[in-house]
Write a structure and sequence with these properties.
Length: 111
Amino acid sequence: MEKVNEHEKTFRNGASGVKYLFRGPAIDWGIVRFAPGEQLGLHKHAEVEETFYFPSSEPLMIVNGQEFRVRKGDAFRISPGESHNIVNDTGEAVEAIFIKSIYRPQDKIDL
């Protein structure tokens, strides 16, 4: 068993970026925050499936070149090989919960 508290973790870039709650051995799990104008960056994974859940934000999600306006409560499951990006084109901070499985930290391919 492992227990963490989100408020005891920090975002990679201070006020934004990735905040891992769990890393390995089977999954990565955490929260990602984007300030207005920030984006995840177009990438894909060779082996990792990535899921994003948006509890209260409405950014632009791009998967394989197709754009989706996120609605609060939307979830996206991205299969290995699918390119994806999240663009915060809103005027507010955007947060998403993510889960990556299998645990392969070096699997990200920037595009």
